[in-house]
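OP here, attaching both records as promised.
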Amino acid sequence: MKGRVLIIAGSDSGGGAGIQADLKAVTALGAFGMTAITALTAQNTLGVHGVLPVPLDFLRQQIAVVMDDLGADAIKTGMLADSATIEAVCDEIAARAPGVPLVADPVMVAKGGHPLLVPEAAETLKRRLLPIASVLTPNLPEAEALCGFAIADVGAMHQGAKALLALGAKAVLLKGGHLPGDEVVDLFVQPGQPSLRLASPRIASGNVHGTGCTLSSAIAAHLALGHGLSEAVRLARGYILHAIESGAPVQTGHGHGPLNHGFAPHASHLKPL
């Protein structure tokens, strides 16, 4: 069986981001999602109202029982909350999933501004998670926190992506959606290869909660289905653009609404009818 994706991340009770968005994206793309939940959040479109970490022994057990029975063709990490959680997750991946492609989304702050990673854990993330990641998928604020300098334009994005590679990541998809303008530019970089500029018109929508979670899970799904990394990034980016566009006119809640994960994308591994 191909297409098995283990998602190690936090739960969003509002359904727009976190494990819930991850599972929707993976399923929509024809892959099979499995989970190890790192934390529970009391969350809706207006923000995060509470966070309850999962005990580390139970987190480790979730990863162990999934890997021992089901296995995985790709792994995605999202919210890891603190240093102890990062250490536990990295230990389990090293022990139970060596060589399995890892998509690491360095979740630090929720869309509404609530911190999802304690500040001191950033160093642990750099030391433990980045070196084992097949691809790192930060947005600009996350990249700035990891690099230690401001990223105010596309030129600085190139510098930031190279700095993240220097920290140990094997590849970086740096998302430029926080920059102003009518065009959104993302950069995909790998050591020794030309940077890939991925640009698209900005879609006017207030429903963009969970875009980072969704994109990283879509990359993991395509990797699990057998695509190479560059192609997985391209396909995942195409998926999320359609999910944003089709979700733009829908009102869900009273704040930052979700994407339309189930807009009926064509599963890449299925034959046409």
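Record two, same layout:
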Amino acid sequence: MEKKENIGSKAEELLESMPELTFWDHLEVLRWALFRIACVLAVCTVVTFLSMPYIFDQYIMAPTTSDFFVYKWLTEVSGGLFSFADDFHVQIININVASQFFTHISTSLSLGLVLVFPYVIYEIWKFIRPALFDHEVTHIRTAFIGGTLMFYLGCAIAYLLIFPFTFRFLTEYELSAAIHNQIDLSSYIGNFVMMVMVMGIVFEMPLLAWVLSCLGLVNRSFLREYKRHAVVGLLVLSAVITPSGDPFSMMLVFVPLYLLYELSIIVVKDEVPN
């Protein structure tokens, strides 16, 4: 009780010492925060736009050939049991006049969004920090740092595992020898960007579950009780993330999502606070 009273008295003193901001003052602070984010995003987009030819050749197009380092590494780890580094090459074609130009712009913007994510988190932190008590700062800071790391982990797993093997499975699948695959640039980039971005976002699931548990909306027993319903929802989400809808691609996406759900059960509180 004494500890709660001390926290309450300190909070009151802090609020009294701070100048009170009106609703319009808060909007002004938010406006400048959004302006700074837009400026940083513009800079990142310009940098990635200028570097895009190199990034495209060395990284974005890498899963289309057997020289992709993940294919080589898995071949070495399996002792040649699985030959991922065989003669694999998919030619990406362009069938629209302006497709390469617009792909250059859209891909630069998407990569800029990925790069600017930590700064967005930082601006959100600056905006809400004055409203937090001292005992809340540590938890929120940890959540923001963890959320940033989970976002990049999701993007990395999508780039290194989910997209390459989904792409390889679909391009090597043969319905008839008379059918030859010609992969369009827009189709390739659309699937690539969507998988990487969406996996980065869905990897925030444990953080979202933790926040909801802190708000008293969910607890560990709730997540365990509705696990079967969650599995169905995750399967539907996997089908949405993988445009092809084939079972192989869905399972590649579903397994990490299910593991994230299990991690969410671990990180949430056991009981809803009164």
